[in-house]
Specification:
This protein has 11 helices and 7 strands. It is an alpha/beta fold and 262 residues long. The chain has a domain at 15-152 and 169-199 and 252-258: 3-Layer(aba) Sandwich (Rossmann fold), CATH 3.40.50.150.
Length: 262
């Protein structure tokens, strides 16, 4: 029996909506870099190993994943479609091997360029039928594609209530689907998947900034933005885990997928 993709969209949002949301972050590049979590070192170690390798970080944003990979000793080239995000990344990131303004669907890189390709909080914005062949093209023999997502841990009550207010993002939906058989077929085999507990310390203002850095807020109408902020304010003021606290931890589960070319 051949390994066929399951009957579902790769990305759980309309392509036109995806494009609008994917390019919405540049207007909030500073906020994004401050509010979003990094990635745990043990997750990067599992995904990429301890030996320094050549990695391409696609949809690298402001470099939250990039800097973790460089700190681990890897040689990292970034590709980012949003010029403002890329400018922020290159300003604050030391030790880049290379950087390119471009997208996953037409990677501005030669064949067999890297030992690994990754995407942190980004694969759900890609057109998989164009991006996956490109990712496969730039991988060397024996290389891996390693998409990664930080997903809010909704087993924690206040986090679930936050999700009820703001809704689920494309990242959270895709991370939940990507382990299904055939999801990355026919270009890649079914992935190995490992989850890592992670957290980011936040103040009440930091939680507001985190929500304001998300595409669903950035692209919402003024009325919807007002509704979201009202709900977040109410949560901060009244939930027993948050009320009166100057600092608290946002819990995440970091999903690391490791795929081999088919």
């Amino acid at each position: 029996m051949t390994n066929q993709p399951s009957p579902k969209p790769h990305n759980p949002v309309d392509p036109e909506i995806t494009q609008v949301h994917a390019l919405s972050f540049g207007q909030a590049a500073d906020l994004y870099d401050t509010a979003r979590p990094t990635y745990p070192a043990e997750a990067l170690r599992w995904g990429f190993g301890d030996t320094p390798i050549d990695i391409v970080d696609v949809g690298a944003g402001t470099g939250l994943l990039t800097r973790g990979l460089i700190a681990a000793g890897h040689r990292v080239t970034v590709v980012e479609p949003d010029r403002q995000m890329l400018d922020k990344l290159t300003t604050i990131t030391q030790g880049l091997t290379g950087h390119h303004h471009g997208n996953a669907e037409a990677l501005p890189l030669p064949d067999a360029y890297a030992d690994a390709v990754t995407a942190g909080q980004a694969y759900h914005w890609f057109d998989p039928d164009k991006a996956l062949p490109e990712i496969k093209r730039v991988l060397r023999p024996g290389g891996h594609f390693v998409p990664i997502w930080n997903v809010r841990d909704e087993s924690v009550d206040w986090v679930q209530r936050l999700s009820d207010i703001v809704g689920s993002s494309a990242a959270e939906l895709t991370a939940g689907l990507a382990g299904a058989p055939g999801y990355f077929a026919p270009y890649f085999t079914d992935p190995e998947l490992k989850l890592f507990a992670h957290e980011k310390s936040l103040t009440p203002e930091g939680l507001v900034q985190l929500v304001q850095s998300r595409s669903y807020y950035l692209t919402a109408s003024p009325q919807r933005q007002k509704e979201i902020m009202s709900g977040v304010s109410d949560l901060l003021a009244n939930h027993p885990s948050l009320a009166g606290r100057e600092e608290f931890a946002m819990p995440y589960l970091t999903h690391v997928f490791r795929l081999s070319p088919a």
